[in-house]
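Batch manifest, entry 17 of 40.
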Amino acid sequence: MNDFSRTYSGAGSLDMSVDAGLRKFMLGVYNKMGLGLLLSAAIAYSVGTFPPLTNLVFGTPLLFVVQWGPLALLFGSMFFMRNPSPIGSALLYWAIVVLIGASLSFWVVLASSGQTVQRIGGGGLSVDFGTIAQAFVITAGAFMALSVFGYTTKRNLMPMQNFLFMAVFGAIALGILNMLFFQSGMLELLLQFAVLLLMAGVVAWQTQALKVTYYQIAGDQRSMAVMTNMGALNLYIAFVNMFQIILSLLGSRE
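Output type: structure tokens
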């Protein structure tokens, strides 16, 4: 029985050799994720510092597309991309990167204007470019440590998958309810820490899942291309969520 089968038959540990093919596959995932982060940063800076783009995103109904588009695409892909192609998965990834990049311009606007905005339930939120850089360094360090753990651990992290998905969806739903109805600052803070822990789990689990999947599909170039896109997407979303939560915590003002 191969390692992939052992994992899904309830094995408590996972031990796979590391080879050149796996390293190449994982580097492909990380490179695509890194390019996504660079593109998001470029879009965020452009939208946040160029007034016509700022007004277009924040002063028109396009704001709702930027805010809810990534979530709609993710939910839609679960139903309409049951057997994704390399082109389809790549389009999904880059579309989400562009939309999230535009939404991240909020932080650039906040930093360049020096404004303080009110948080849900009271308190203020204010950041500068130094705070943004600090949050990025912290996020990158945490992400690297979590990914290395997921890559090297022999413990089977696959059973975490269902819990992580259910918990993330629950946190999203509770966050929307809090924004619309409860407007509790304490609940907002608790949700931030909860999502931060969940994203940490996603990074470790997804890194191991990519290793496991590689050994299942090695040699299938179509599947490898799809998994490179989807793996980069999952890690990208986890990184961005961690970054925004850390930035929000660093920028909190009483």
